[in-house]
Design a protein that fits this description.
Structural class: alpha/beta
CATH topology of the largest domain: Rossmann fold
Largest sheet: 6 strands, parallel
Strand order of the largest sheet: 5-4-1-6-7-8
Mean pLDDT: 89
CATH architecture of the largest domain: 3-Layer(aba) Sandwich
Number of domains: 2
Number of strands: 8
CATH superfamily of the largest domain: HAD superfamily/HAD-like
Strand content: 5-15%
Order of helices and strands: HHEEHHHHEHEHEHEHEEH
Shape: globular
Oligomer: single chain
Low-confidence stretches: 1-35
CATH class of the largest domain: Alpha Beta
Amino acid sequence: MMIDRRGFLAAAAGAAVVLSARETVGSRTPAADAMDGPRIKAIAFDGFPIIDGRSIALRAEELFPGKGENLANAWRTRQFEYTWLRTVSGHYVDFWQTTQDALVFATRSMGLELSTDTRDRLMRTYLELKSWPDALPALETLRAAGIRLAFLSNFTVPMLDAAIENSGLRGFFEAHLSTDRVRAFKPHPRAYEMGLKAFRASRDEIVFCASAGWDAAGAQWFGYRTFWVNRSQQPTEELGVKPDGIGTGMADLVKFVLAA
């Protein structure tokens, strides 16, 4: 049986996040608002606003002609359901293992034969990902504005390092805030809390940049300013919160941050 994603997130993560959402490292005051310089000090990125994941479905179609799109969708759905189940149950394994487990299940559920070689080729796609074309100019603008940047992602450090290397993005990001550090996937509050500790800033001085509606909701529950790079123009989740900003690309994020 498929997990009811919205109900699962609201019940499993919502209460815990709301309880901690206002325990800020520091809070804004009128005097702070009047200070020179950007009110946003840092951006914590999910992986996919920067990293283009479309090649995953293309590789699935190459290996399973006519079934690649359905496989990619089933794989992605089970991938994130497994992250939530493992976090809530306390049975954490890293995102690479979670992704492989989800692939095995997805192919089995569709009656597809998954050889070791095919499994490895599909998994290797995650180490071959590159950035979206609009990522570099946006990152250059944000860096020039003095805004600190880091990934806050379920991806493992090697997965993030590979994407940066493949894309020529060295030097833009601080140390990766992989959920491996806290052994809890998003939307658990321990995952989002890494941004507060790394940037030494308050929640309202940090923007969390999401690529998925559920992640935007989780960050909003935690208390971050949240921007959703909604490239596929999906509806917002019905979880009682909305992102502070929504756009279809990185240029929209830049406008939102520099106007804050």
